[in-house]
Amino acid sequence: MNASIFVDTNVMVYAYDRSEPEKQVKALQILDLLATRKIGAISAQVLAEFFVTVTRKIKEPLTLEQAQKRIQNYLASWTVLDVTPLIIIEAVRGVREYQLSYWDAQIWATARLNQISTVFSEDFATGSILEGISFVNPFAADFELASWL
């Protein structure tokens, strides 16, 4: 595995959310570049959250068929990490020790236990580092994708 950047669900969702055109363009650029360079990783959790969000929670949802096709494309072109029992235990520790929400803790635990030191997400405080995992908001005004390649 050459993945060095873990991508949270929100980055993937913005690629399909037409109600956020600026974020959509940025998300598409990020996802395309990470996939092309084969340095991006996602998890089974991220794919599940992606499916629910793009079919039910965005203004113009994808059809079930469209969402399934997108997921199949991600499975074929991205490193997809499993959620293991050890990740669940580590996520619980993240909730207990760092007061993360469980789902955010599971993102952190998946990155940490797979030795991926950077998470692209808008759900964590930008610039925060938790046990060696850096959280970066790719939609922040000062974000430059080239500096992460």
UniProtKB/TrEMBL annotation:
It comes from the Bacteria. Gene3D superfamilies: 5'-nuclease. Residues 5-123 form the PIN domain. InterPro entries: PIN-like_dom_sf, PIN_dom. Transmembrane segments: none annotated. Its EC number is 3.1.-.-. Keywords: Endonuclease, Hydrolase, Nuclease. GO terms for molecular function: endonuclease activity; hydrolase activity. This is tRNA(fMet)-specific endonuclease VapC. It comes from Neomoorella humiferrea. The gene is vapC_7.
